[in-house]
Amino acid sequence: MQLIQALALAVMLWQSAPARAQRLHHFVFFEFERGRIRDTAFLSIRALEGAQLKYSWRELEPARNHYDFSAIEQDLRYLSAHGKRLFVQLQEVSFDSSIVNVPDYLRSDPAYGGGAALQYDLPGDDEGRARASGWVARRWDPAVRRRFQLLLAALGRSFDGRIAGINLPETAVDFGTTGRLFPSGFTFGRYRDAVIENMRALKAAFPRSVAMQYANFMPGEWLPGADSGYLRSVYDAARESGVAVGGPDLLPHRRGQLNHSYPLIRASSGVVATGIAVQWGNYEERDPATGRQITIAELVRFAGEWLRVDYIFWSTQEPFYSRDVLPMLRALTSTS
Asked: Which domains does the chain have, with CATH numbers?
């Protein structure tokens, strides 16, 4: 019943939403496929303001206190020369247990507790069936957090005001709830406090470019029934600090998003900048009432008129990107 009520309310509000006054900023999310900024289809569409590209902490700080921002400089220079802007996603988490996105020195020096921790998929919330699903920087560890914030400050000195924006990746991590899978030093409260501290450091480093925190879910709660206030406190702190908010995914009919990040993103609109990332699989979303696959036009309308976001970051998943997204953006160019 809760799902039906949530979906009905979202559809009602979506359909009755007033027309959006401000313009949406469209970026393509090329992830680590950074060479694709040279695609002629991307470059030729005026409605596409730029590219959102991933850069890992590991590549940006290959050794302690040694920063290498040459990849960002190169991409920024190319995009600027072609009238496009760069939005950086700073990646210190992975969703593949074979990929670690933190520097080696964090992993080898005992002072950093290994630098990163495994997170898990938990089929049916059964911790006995846990499967490693990636690595996340030890955000709750003060020593690791200090190193990360030094990276943010260095990035800000080089790129604040030059790039369109920078975002920290999603807040969702999963170590279960019983403590059995918790990494050393981890608690739900410490994790919440660390997320807030890092996003404030991001804003301090980037007062001119958009400084955005992706905040979708938080460990230790599941709304609406088990509400510990963690996600809400992140959004409250973001509004107080002028930090932009958003996150993955764009799924208008999903109970999880409707109960968690979507109302908070909507409530932040007009207070701070907001954004939504269209991720792999989002284009395949179906309306549970009809079974019909959602259209690109419906995604744009939900993002712009119900969520009221300022930024949409489009995935390159095929065939949807070339067949549906690019033609929609070309049409926007012709009517602008």
From this structure: 21-92+139-281+299-315 (3.20.20.80)
Distance of alpha carbon 148 from alpha carbon 90, whole angstroms: 10
Rounded CA separation 92/108 (Å): 16
Q: Is the pTM of this model over 0.90?
A: yes
- Direct distance between the N- and C-terminal alpha carbons of the chain, in angstroms, rounded to an integer: 43
Contact residues for 99 (Cβ-Cβ < 8 A; gap 6+):
134, 135
Question: What pLDDT shows up at residue 17?
Answer: 45
What is each CA distance from 143 to 112, 218, 268, in whole angstroms?
Answer: 6, 22, 31
H or E element in which residue 278 lies: none
pLDDT digits over 194-245, tens only?
A: 999 999 999 999 999 999 999 999 999 999 999 999 999 999 999 999 999 9
For the chain, which ranges sit under pLDDT 70?
Answer: 1-22, 334-336
Backbone phi, then psi, for 262, in 5-degree steps?
A: -60, -50
